[in-house]
Amino acid sequence: EVGILAKSYIDQGRLIPDDIMTRLMLSELKGLDRYNWLLDGFPRTVAQAEALDKECQIDTVIDLDVPFETIKCRLTARWIHPASGRVYNLEFSPPKVQGIDDITGEPLVQRDDDKPETVTKRLQAYDAQTKPVLEYYRAKGLLKSFSGTETNKIWPHIYAFLQTKLPDVSQKDAATPR
């Protein structure tokens, strides 16, 4: 039920309200206090950050400083095969035949939240709400920023930094989604 509500906000190019997002995230984090974990895209507002701080001790916040135009180009070039979830990117991982899934030959679709007008609205909302979060964590001495436009150029710096925080993480483990 909460997921359907969240999707309605995303489809409109709006960010999910703090109370809904915080409830979702904090319920997922319960029981993970024995583990190291990395959150991607949360918290996005100061209210979310404050709620997270009440429940968890945050060691580090990583800011990927990527120009919005780069993000917009990547997202709007993303197309999917709905039945399988296969993702293509017209710029760096295109299908063999434009608009067609490589395996089934079925048409690819662009998600509503990847359409240019929706991406622009999402990025504007993200910028307005997230800058204060960066300042919040900068003031706490927890923020580390990495700037760039290409993953393969940013990642080695992030990996080296993470090694100082989690020295037992291997390159293989770091490249494997969990």
From TrEMBL:
Domain Adenylate kinase active site lid: 78-113
Keyword annotations of the record: Kinase, Nucleotide-binding, Transferase
Family named by the database record: Belongs to the adenylate kinase family.
Tagged with keyword Nucleotide-binding: yes
Lineage: Eukaryota, Metazoa, Chordata, Craniata, Vertebrata
One Pfam family it belongs to: ADK
MF term (GO), any: AMP kinase activity
Signal peptide (from-to): none
Record protein name field: Adenylate kinase 3
Stored HAMAP family: Adenylate_kinase_Adk
SUPFAM superfamilies hit by this protein: P-loop containing nucleoside triphosphate hydrolases
Catalytic reaction(s) noted: GTP + AMP = GDP + ADP
